Amino acid sequence: MRLDVPTNLWGDRIFLLLHGRLFLDWPHIFRTDAVGFPDGLDLFGFPFTDFTERLLQFLTTRLTGDVIVGANLYLILIVAANFAAAFWALRGFQIRAWWCLAGAFAFAFIPYFARRSTGHDYLAAYYAAPLAFLILPRIVTAVRDQSLARIAKDPVTLACCVIIATSGIYYSFFALLTWGFAGLALAAQERNWRYLPAMAFPAGLTLVVLVPILVFFAVVAPDNAGTARLAAEQPLYGFRISDVILRLQQLGVARNALQNYMAIRGTTEGVDAWPGPVLSVCALLAALFGAVMPRRRGPGARPDYEGLAPTFIAYLVFCMIYCAPFGLGLIFNLLIAPEIRAQNRIAPFFAFAALLVFFGLWRHAVLWLQSRLGRSIGGMTATVGLVALVLINSAGSQALFAGQQRALQRQPAFAAEMTSIRSALAAADAAGLQWILQLPTAPWPEAPPIRDFKPYDHFLPFIFSPPGSSRHWSYGALEGTDGLSRLEALVGIATWPCALAELSSSYNFDAVLIDRRAYDAGELAAWDSRLTAFGARLVNDDPVRRLYRLPTSGCSQPLLPLDRWLSAAAGGELEPLLHRGWYPPEPWGRWGMGATQRLLLPNRGLGGRSLVLDLRMMQLADKHGRIPRVEVRIDQTLIATISAARPMQPEEQRIVIPPTLLPQTGFTTIELTPEGGPIPASSVSPEDNRLLGVGLMALRVQEAGR
């Protein structure tokens, strides 16, 4: 593979490249105003508990000074780390050295790695899984020798716990599950309760390292936990034991259940490849015919892969139950956070346990071949068979990075993207552009695609910009922040006089970068007409992006139309100025949802006198017939309390805003808060389960005394 060519450029790979780019701007790796302008990109919501992986990428990127080279070196090194951890752990179970080489290769290139290394790259660094198993024989030896203190002094156990705890919350969680399950299984098999405190030691040590990291990010980023997903939907995903299990449907086994499962597949996460056909079949056979595996030979037997075979078989069954719909996967989402469908993350643990069971079976297969074909021919046949099985199981990951690079370079979209990025950056340099508004506006961290455009692609020009650049990009502003909301409002009223001028005067934007993929031909023509009419100049145009330079001249007209009712109905003039807390528009206007509704008032051209704000509103009465009063705040300052006389009847309410609360530029935030919170709509219509605040139909602004 070539180190200077990316293996992937879009999707979740952007996060790996983004972190590499921020690493070059050290120490601005958590919060930076280079992106997310007019605020700043906040990455505290990311799961930075995967410290060892980020440290590795930090070193590769900083040492090379190149985002792509650093990312590629990181990917190569995590393959080596996965291989080394698996080899080291397999040797800990007394497996032959060259078998360990084959097993480590199979583990480092399970199909799960192929899928994760093109997206969730930090999850592809799953070396924590074999390290969790490496601890098991050492604990078994200590328990059988009745020397639990040995565990606390064992440097291998201590090192493994620290690495696991700093490798991320997902693999730490599954390591804790592995130890807990193994402790219970061994205690039951050997009737020895000492396994429970013995397994509790590595679990406790891991938590001692992990919890402070979690607490740190919970303290510094309590309101930025990313996009939550419902815990109830988590257990529906992750049940794919290769394609072997799906073949049961062809035989008529559990046909309806599998059809229901197939309806889920492909709709969202949960379709990652598992360890591959060989290990998956081996695990299924072990679960079905575990009795044929060799049992332990007594309490004094060596803690090798054969002696612990019953525990591993039971663990494989546990993994299957865990990943089944409505299975134990719900534990993660209830105890940790319902943000990620975590069932797939147990795949590396499943794979390593399956490897240990496989070698237990393979040892008997080798002895059988040697007894039938002779020691030499049987051994050679077994060797060829083992190599073939390893390659079959790893077929999904062969020539992984080089193949990805070749496939990427053959894509016309990749060539167009790179050409567009280079031309846009060169044009921005030539024109001296420093503050770039990226259209369409989209909130960080997750926004839905817009036509053929994925909002994460807004990061690509920044990622390929030179380290230490003073250029600022708008994408990355957090959803719900005032900066983003006001920017979206300006873009929404771009057809109003002076709206585009406000971008230059109040927000210091000197350029607009439009991604063509989000607009059709008519919309692009409309933006070109607005911008050129304002005096903007097109400085770069390619099949992917357009870059305009904004003029520095101001505008003397007021931004907000005065003495005219602005409608809050669908498509009404007021719609872009409605901030957080509103349901989608209805023909007559909008209902406020939740406890507080916000709208924005553009300040340009309002003058120095008091303003009269007329609201055409209606309200619901609660089940007792009471209509709640509505508190009105201007930038969090309470200025009035209004109340409707009759429920569900349009009424006009008048509010006077003193000039001291109106800045010369930007926006003023108006908050409407019903006392007692929203009212269930079911008090009017039984089938409506919404919680409604105020109903806003229209708004009018006048200068006082006119």
TrEMBL record:
Presence of the UniProt keyword Transmembrane in the record: yes
Keyword flag Nucleotide-binding: no
Keywords associated with the record: Membrane, Transmembrane, Transmembrane helix
Superkingdom: Bacteria
Sequence intervals crossing the membrane: 67-90, 97-114, 126-144, 156-179, 199-220, 271-292, 312-334, 346-365, 377-401
Protein name, as recorded: Uncharacterized protein
